[in-house]
Amino acid sequence: MTILILLVAILALIGLISWAKLHAFLAFLLVTIGVGFAFGLAPAPLMAAIYQGLGDTLGSVVLVIVLGAMLGKVVADSGAAQQIAVVLIEAFGTRYIQWTLMVAGFIIGIPLFYNVGFVLMVPLIFSVVYKYKLPAVYVGLPMLAALSVMHGFLPPHPAPTALVAQFHANLGLTFAYGLLIAVPAIVLAGPVYGRRLRHIVSVPLLSFAVEPEPERVLPGRLNSFLSSLLPVLLLVTVLGLQALLPPHTQLAPVLAFLSEPAVVMLLSVLVATISLGTALGKSIASVMEAYTASAKEVALILLIIAGAGALKQVLVASGVSTDIAARLQGTGLPPLVLGWLIAAIIRVCLGSATIAGLTAAGVMLPTMAYSHANPNLMVLAIGAGSLLLSHVNDAGFWLFKEYFNLSVRDTLRSWTMMETIVSVVGLVGVLTLDWLLKLSVGLVPTHIG
């Protein structure tokens, strides 16, 4: 009966968002209240669980997501993202243009949220297409594959950041594991698969072929790279020092403080405010206006994350979480595969990668205490599942179709297949990394007999 109620709840969530066109936050709240009553919670404990879920979830992610949006905004508005792409194209030329744009998408995708990165980079892709007379899908898909993987796998993007908090994973380790898995996923879904798409005829709409800013008004090259990648550089430096130094040195508390994701993002935003803001002649007021706009852009995402947190807490408060865990374990599927599968099913039904990931996390969270699955890898497994089979119910599908002026059939062959390759390769990468980690601590036999 427990699993049946949970299944009905997920179907109701899909129905309210897809068919009734209700905002995801309202849908989460309605479903959460219904689930609470169905599992026997009285009104007072039910509302207490909802308040706790909202507060706990937002409290752990709001700083990272908002600061990440601010960093992405200043990187985009200053022209640093365009400068990075220009530098890479000049360095490697058109012979390796797919790989060049893939690397550009990889770097730019770290600070920029997907939609911002897409709209910002598509004019650059089109300028390359028109200048060198190259097929648009063949050229553009690798960069967009990189942006998509960053969005689905790695903090400070909203869904991965929320999943790290929900599973009590380590942000630094999740980021490091995510990079290891992201590289083969991007390579296979981007340049390798993109070679099969050279024959797709795409004439991008001229209205989208915006002329890039002249290089003289862009920030310096070193400045662009360092400011955009500062969160990664800080994390790598702090984690490296923590690994090299004894754990009980006087620097240990300082390093622990500096390794906090919110602190890393705050320092990065403060540096970028100067390096990509005031140092380029912008006033503090104009930079702050841009930050205000970026916070507004992620407000609705934060509400969706809060709604998912409320559903998770109601499942815990109702006492059925252990029952759910036992029944899911009874399927015989490894927890990482199960997390990927649940996210994938919701993604196919609903279209939103963010909602798919957050809903799957709420379902899988009770199993973590019993399965001993690696929480960092669970974040990545669910993130990979949330990217599977983007089709006509996904806004990203239509964004790609319209900008590249493709038929639905060609969009399915290019965009949908790219997202599916990313998802499947991501799962394979997670399972391989899980096996290697278990092997390293002796949990997997090295021979038979």
TrEMBL record:
<keyword id="KW-0812">Transmembrane</keyword>
<feature type="transmembrane region" description="Helical">
    <location>
        <begin position="58"/>
        <end position="76"/>
    </location>
</feature>
<keyword id="KW-1133">Transmembrane helix</keyword>
<comment type="similarity">
    <text>Belongs to the GntP permease family.</text>
</comment>
<feature type="transmembrane region" description="Helical">
    <location>
        <begin position="30"/>
        <end position="51"/>
    </location>
</feature>
<keyword id="KW-1003">Cell membrane</keyword>
<keyword id="KW-0472">Membrane</keyword>
<feature type="transmembrane region" description="Helical">
    <location>
        <begin position="174"/>
        <end position="193"/>
    </location>
</feature>
<dbReference type="GO" id="GO:0005886">
    <property type="term" value="C:plasma membrane"/>
</dbReference>
<feature type="transmembrane region" description="Helical">
    <location>
        <begin position="251"/>
        <end position="277"/>
    </location>
</feature>
<feature type="transmembrane region" description="Helical">
    <location>
        <begin position="225"/>
        <end position="245"/>
    </location>
</feature>
<dbReference type="GO" id="GO:0015128">
    <property type="term" value="F:gluconate transmembrane transporter activity"/>
</dbReference>
<feature type="transmembrane region" description="Helical">
    <location>
        <begin position="340"/>
        <end position="365"/>
    </location>
</feature>
<feature type="transmembrane region" description="Helical">
    <location>
        <begin position="420"/>
        <end position="437"/>
    </location>
</feature>
<feature type="transmembrane region" description="Helical">
    <location>
        <begin position="377"/>
        <end position="400"/>
    </location>
</feature>
<protein>
    <submittedName>
        <fullName>Gnt-I system high-affinity gluconate transporter</fullName>
    </submittedName>
</protein>
<dbReference type="Pfam" id="PF02447">
    <property type="entry name" value="GntP_permease"/>
</dbReference>
<keyword id="KW-0813">Transport</keyword>
<feature type="transmembrane region" description="Helical">
    <location>
        <begin position="136"/>
        <end position="154"/>
    </location>
</feature>
<feature type="transmembrane region" description="Helical">
    <location>
        <begin position="298"/>
        <end position="320"/>
    </location>
</feature>
<feature type="transmembrane region" description="Helical">
    <location>
        <begin position="96"/>
        <end position="129"/>
    </location>
</feature>
<dbReference type="InterPro" id="IPR003474">
    <property type="entry name" value="Glcn_transporter"/>
</dbReference>
